[in-house]
Design brief:
- The structure is a homodimer.
- Chain A is an alpha/beta fold.
- Chain A folds into two domains: about 280 residues, Carbon-nitrogen hydrolase (Nitrilase/N-carbamoyl-D-aminoacid amidohydrolase); about 270 residues, HUPs (Rossmann fold, 3-Layer(aba) Sandwich), CATH 3.40.50.620.
- Chain A is about 40% helix and about 20% strand.
- Chain A is built from 19 helices and 21 strands.
- Chain A has a six-stranded mixed sheet with strand order 5-4-3-2-1-14.
- In chain A, helix 9 links the parallel strand 18 and strand 19.
- In chain A, helix 7 packs across helix 13 and helix 16 crosses helix 18.
- The longest helix of chain A has 23 residues.
- Chain A is globular.
- Chains A and B meet through helix 2, helix 7, helix 10, helix 11 and helix 17 of A and helix 2, helix 7, helix 10, helix 11 and helix 17 of B.
């Protein structure tokens, strides 16, 4: 039995492109006698949020469904498609009463038919599916060419004590009751990427394969949706063996011949593991370093390469969907902006243009210019030097004239950062370029940036990487991509250069300690007390906690961050600005 | 039977203040032989979002519960408290497995006892309760001093076809089955304010009162939580009569003697109405004006006063919780900034300081200065005039020197707006003041503002009012608060003054048409097609729709907006930036 796995890549609600894709599949005679499987919500894209409530979206989507029915009825080729889509039920006033996340069967004769409704609607972290969708109640054992296929949609494969239902168990019990031996499990997914997720998926899929004694097919979409990436990486796992892989971050069609199960059955493990669950969100994986202190786990080369590919994809997706071909990065001579520039350089496609702007002020070291210039020379990127000293002076004078109070301290520091932000955006307006934000996760967590200043940008590249990880990624890039970041940039102590002799280390704990504390607070929900019990310095913890909780207002106005980790700032992180804790 | 209704006002997670309040109630002998009722989640505050998952919060909350038990055991006074709080269940690793939104009974003998768990968890618009909480299954008929009291928590009182459960019906059936006649319904609420909500609450409460044949007591919290306001306004309704009202936006204690039911029973209406429901979110209330065109309903004087009080409260709550006593508003000579200044002036408390900054550029009319100055004279607010011409020139020159390309068009327009934003924040940094944003809802909806420019601010005052409503509110204030906004500001055509002879009407449809189209798109989810069918001009609709969907990226980086309407930008509005629709 032949199964074609369509790892697709479309913009959300791009119904024309989605229709054309189906038209091509249905009209191709080579596709006959084949089962074609598509990702979850292939017909709409994902995540939709409120879009699925808007009548513009609903009307165009319903038109698409009608056109698909007509198309399938005209088709003479004998094939079957299983596609993810939405099923709406409307009331007498045409308002959506229920919306279901379903698997449609498309066949030449029957048009569209709902086979299965997603049972387990993820509703934690970035997920809001219970806000919009109604869960299914029924299992589906789908018969095709004499084979029995168990159907699941994405989250259905996972278990957690938070979930009120366990679709894998329910499917298993149904198979036992009906005395059916499945020939394959097929999971239609739209599964957001984070580092390590792919491995977790494989482990879980293998458990399910061994439970049912059949191959587990996983088809995932490709796409960058604002902050969230879908990595594709579809697969089949048969017992313990991965028998195919889809491409990473690229559309793909995998032609797969259904295999016999190989390996040992295991009727227990699949019911016990709680991977990728509510509980896993709290599981602290800080590790002890050689001095026996808790630190972030180090990024391996493999991790770094995966991150790099993810960031490149995320940038290009956002640029394409927003219509940008030009890019601007403000260089400071520091590691963050240098790394963003390096990543963007490595991401550039033909016809795209990248430029760097260096904006020295009174407190910029000449070394900052030298290093920025050196880097741009190495990677052959035009660097503009736009000094802000004179403008800064002219602002100081004008300000003092009016307020009779000189710009000093924070006021004088931030004006430089905001002036740079404004100038960067002037250039962006002039040449219609996308501004790449250069903040990192450590900065964001403690509010060590200037709102409307160095925090500006269309999208944040490093906002899900702590400062120590920024260093690791820079070193990896240098090692594997011809030393494009000057060593001097990596070696110098981090500074914002907004006053004399400013260094990050004067205001913050050392980054390895800071990052570990932040990871504890953010990813594992640890309290100050927990962190102190784990051996962190009480005073440092208390300082970091205060900075962290009091900088919520800055994060609220931050741009989308390309999501790399299981826990990130952005959609999946929602905390009141004003509170007492 | 004596019931004291505690309409409380505490910052989220301010456990010390919450404990002290309880201590005071329990130690007061005058409170004996009385039932004391408190709002939903009195013990924590609301909304909590991810805070209720963070161990810092959880540990401090659990400490509070322990302290309350000890306190209640020490208390000699005979009284009973019904307070809203969270009930956590933890697993063996101390992770929260379920979190319930409950009513605790506090008595001198028994300490804390859970009486009831909220059944209906709102999960639409701004609400995410299913993300965090587990719903209750059981009704509660609470016996106190020989009386039978039906307990509900907030959303439990509403019905909708989206909801899988109807707590009012379930309670009613239980009463029938047990042959109990209730003496009162008590609803503990934390119900966000929007215009018209109070009336909807009264109508629904009256229906329930008539269904059960007993008074309906409604206790609501007071507070401004970032964008969301809780208005208090607790009440008792007996049949059709309101027998007490709590204060608006102020803490209050109402001493209430339980009444006999008066009026006619109605066993049908309460099961039919769908107020404040999923469906009501779509119910279009655009009205026809004298030319038979659909327009926004006009704001009555009563609406305007309610809005004004809400905005004053919202500003002061945000200021107090963020620790600000100084305020800055950038005046432009236009209506939005003038209205913000007027509202802030009317909100000022002793010890607070408000100043205005007028920043004229090359395209600012002298009239803009005159009107701004006149207004500040009238309301006795210090106005600083900080010209940006020279700085703008110096930026133009520097920019041209570097890029060999003069600042023109959008680039030259936006730099002025961003320069003003930077200067305003310089002043804010210098005197530790809170910057009040001056954008309105129409601007926000079509992206007619400069990101990091005129869109800056800590909190948005007018972001939930369309431009036509801004005019209405300004006129109302002039009529009722001694003409503090010069007529010239209200009468002149809106302009951003960023280029020669710029007027909003050159780029946008007239505001009465624009606002009606926007309300259709935003509040009623209407499509372009729907709007055209309702009689709007096809070209205008299509232009507005394009501006609306393409400005999502600006809204993503906008500050919190004080929520005034049923449908607002902010937490309750979630749409992907990149999409095709």
């Amino acid at each position: 039995m032949q199964i074609n796995i369509h790892q697709t890549h479309h913009t959300i609600s791009d119904f024309e492109a989605i229709y054309s894709y189906l038209e091509e599949v249905l009209s191709n005679k080579l596709n006959c006698d084949t089962l074609h499987i598509f990702p979850e919500l292939f017909l709409t894209g994902y995540p939709l949020q409120d879009l699925c409530l808007q009548r513009s979206f609903i009307q165009k989507y319903c038109d698409l469904l009608d056109r698909i029915v007509t198309l399938s009825q005209k088709t003479k080729n004998n094939m079957t498609l299983l596609v993810g889509g939405l099923q709406y039920e409307f009331d007498e006033e045409n308002l959506p009463i229920t919306i279901k996340n379903v698997i449609y069967e498309i066949t030449p004769k029957s048009g569209l038919r709902v086979l299965y409704t997603k049972k387990l609607l993820p509703n934690y972290d970035i997920f809001d599916e219970e806000k919009y969708f109604t869960a299914g109640q029924e299992n589906c054992i789908y018969e095709y060419q004499g084979k029995s296929l168990g159907l699941l949609v994405c989250e259905d494969m996972w278990i957690s004590s938070m979930h009120h239902t366990d679709p894998v168990r329910e499917l298993f019990l149904e198979c036992e009751q009906q005395k059916v031996e499945l020939d394959a499990i097929i999971n239609l997914s739209a599964s957001p990427f984070y580092l390590g997720k792919d491995n977790t998926r494989l482990i879980r899929a293998s458990e399910i394969s061994k439970l049912f004694g059949c191959p587990f097919l996983y088809v995932n979409r490709v796409g960058g949706e604002d902050e969230i990436l879908f990595d594709g990486s579809s697969f089949c796992i048969n017992g313990s063996n991965v028998t195919f892989r889809g491409k990473l971050y690229e559309k793909d069609i995998i032609k797969y011949k259904l295999e016999q199960f190989s390996g040992d059955r295991d009727l227990i493990k699949a019911f016990e593991d709680k991977l990728n669950s509510w509980e896993s969100l709290f599981k602290c994986d800080l590790i002890k370093n050689s001095e026996n202190n808790l630190r972030l786990p180090e990024l391996s080369d493999e991790h770094c390469e995966h991150i790099l590919q993810s960031l490149r994809f995320g940038i290009q997706e956002y640029a394409k969907k927003s219509g940008f071909k030009n890019f601007d990065v403000a260089l400071s001579g520091g590691i963050d902006s240098a790394l963003v520039l390096a990543i963007m350089k490595l991401s550039l496609l033909p016809g795209q243009n990248l430029e760097a702007i260096y904006m020295p002020g009174f407190y910029s070291a000449s070394k900052s210019y030298d290093l920025s210039f050196e880097m741009c020379q190495i990677i052959d990127i035009k660097m503009y030097t736009l000094p802000i000293k004179f403008i800064h002076s002219s602002i100081r004078n004008q300000y003092n004239d009016v307020f009779h109070s000189p710009m000093e301290g924070l006021c004088d520091e931030n004006i430089q950062s905001r002036l740079r932000g404004a100038l960067l955006y002037a250039r962006s307006n002039q040449r219609n370029s996308m501004v790449l934000n250069t903040s990192n996760k450590s900065e964001l967590a403690v509010g060590y940036s200037t709102l409307y200043g160095d925090s500006v940008g269309a999208i944040s590249i490093l906002g899900d990487l702590y400062k120590t990880e920024v260093f690791a990624l820079a070193k990896y890039i240098n090692k594997n991509y011809s030393n494009i970041i000057p060593a001097g940039i990596i070696d110098r102590p981090p500074t914002a250069e907004l006053r004399e002799d400013q260094e990050d280390s004067h205001s913050l704990p050392s980054y390895d300690r800071l990052d570990a504390i932040l990871e504890g607070l953010l990813s594992y929900q640890l309290s100050e007390k927990d962190l102190i019990e784990k051996g962190f310095d009480a005073e440092e913890v208390s300082k970091v906690y205060r900075l962290y909780t009091r900088s919520e207002y800055k994060r609220r106005q931050f741009c989308p961050i390309i999501k790399i980790k299981a826990k990130s700032f952005g959609t999946g992180y929602r905390v009141p600005i004003c509170k007492s804790v």
